[in-house]
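thread: overnight batch results

M.L. [08:02]
morning all. the overnight job finished for the chain we discussed friday. pasting input first so we're all looking at the same thing
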Amino acid sequence: MIGDLDMNTAGWIRKWALLSPERVALKDDNRKLTYRELNRRINRLAHFLLAKGVRKGDRVAALLHNSTPFLEIFFAVSKIGAIFVPLNFRLSPPEITFVINDCTAKTFFFDETFGPMLQNIRNDLPIAEDRYICVDGSAPAFGQAYEPLLHAASDREPSIPPEADPESPHIIMYTSGTTGLPKGAVLPQRKTFFNVLNANLYYQVSPEDRVVVSRPLFHSGGLLVDSLPFLYRGGTVFMKRRFDPEELLRTAEQHRATVMETSATMYRFILESCDPARFDLASVRCFFTGGEQVPISLLRAYAEKGILISQIFGQTETSTVTWLPVEHALRKMGSVGLPVFHGEVRVVDEKGQEAPPGASGEIVVSGPILMSGYWGKPELTRDTIKEGWLHTGDLGIRDEEGFYYILDRVKNVFISGGENVYPAEVERVLLENPLVAAAAVIGAPDEKWGEAAKAFVVAAGENTITEDELRKWCVERLARYKVPASFQFVDEIPENAGGKIMRYKLRE
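M.L. [08:03]
and the structure it wrote out:
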C-alpha cells in the first residue's frame, strides 16, 4: 500500500537530488539546473516564504511565463504545505483581480512584463508590498527581486514536516468558463499523485526521458500532464517560454526528446510554417495531443509524414481521463482512447444510467484523479460531483472495444427537426477545408426545423471561399440536417483566455 507521505510532491526533487544529483532536471531559455541545484533553490525559497509568514493552507499566486522559477515556486509552496495558484497570463486585469480576491492569495510572484498591469490593480488586491516578488528583470518599486531573496536564504531542508494528508489542497487551478466568472478547481495532493502515475504509464517514463514543454505551465496540461510525470521519474524537462514551431522542433532534435505533447493548434502551426520531416525526430517514441478539438485531417497529415499522434482527453478537474495507446494510433484515429489505469470512465444517459456501446451520453469520471471541489462553491461542487462521479459536461460514445470518442459539450447540442446536432462535428468538417482557418457553429431559430445550424467562418489567409462552396463541402460530408442553414464570415471567433469559444457572443 502506498504511504500517505509518498503522495506529497514536495519530496520528489529532494529524493532525486540524492539519487541523481548531477542529472539535469530543468532547462529553460536562460538557465539549466541539476536535481541538486533545483532542490537547493527550492529550499531557499521555502525558507523565504516561511520567514514571510506563509503557512499551511495559505494561497500563493504566480503570474509567470514558462521558466525554471515557475516550478521552483510550485515545489517550494508544496514543501511548506501552502496552496499554489497559477494564473493564466492571458486573463484581463479585472479577471486577475477577481481570482486573487476569490482565493485571497497574500503572496504574488510575477514576471517583470506584468509589472505595469499589477501597478494599476494593486489597490484592489489583498497583498502587502513585501509580498510581491518579481521573478525576472528589474523589480518595480512595490516588489522585491527574486534572485537576491533566494541567495539570502538557507539551502538546508526546512524543518517543517511535509504534509501527510493526501486530501490536503495542493493547487487551486482556475478554469475559464464560456460564460460567467472563473472558478477555482481545488486539486489535492492525492489527485496530483495519481495523475502522475497515470501519465507515467501512458508515456512509459524513465529517468532517461526528456520532454519539451511548450504548453503554458499555468494549465493542467503544461504542469500536471507534461512536466510533473518526468520530474517524478527523474527525467529532464525543457521549457519554452513561448511557442515557436521551428524552435520547438529544433529543441526536440537537439536534446533528443523522447516524448512530444502539444495542442492540436500548435501541431497545425508546425505544418503551416515548417516541415517536421526536416528535423531528426527519431528519438521521439510517442507524440500526443489533447485539450481541444482535433481534426482528423490533421492526424492524417502527420500520419502521411510517418508521425502518428495519439490523443488524450481530460479537463482541469480530472487531468487525463483517457489516452490512446501508441499502437492503436492509426487503427483508432479520432478516438481519445481508453480510460487511464487509476480512474473509471462511463458514458451515461440523461437518467444517469450507463449507455450501451455506440450510444451517446455524458462522460462521467470516478476514482482518485478527481478534484476536491470548487473553491468556495459547495453548490457547484455538488452539481458537478454526484455520488462519487464527476460529470464532465462532455458528450461522447464508447465503441465495442471500449475506446472513447468525444462528440461535443452537453450544453452545445441543439435539436434540429428532432435530431441532435453536435456543433463540434460540423466544425470538424469545416476545419478540414484548407480554405477555412477557424469555425464555430451554434443552433439558430428556424421556422421549419425549430433550430438549424449557423456557422461562423474565418477564411484562411488571403483565400476566399463562398457560402455555396462551403455548403457543398458540408453536403458531401454530413447528413442534411447537420449542414448549416447559413454561414457568416467573420474576422475572428470570440474566445476566452482559456481558448474556448464564447458561443453566447455568437448568439448575441
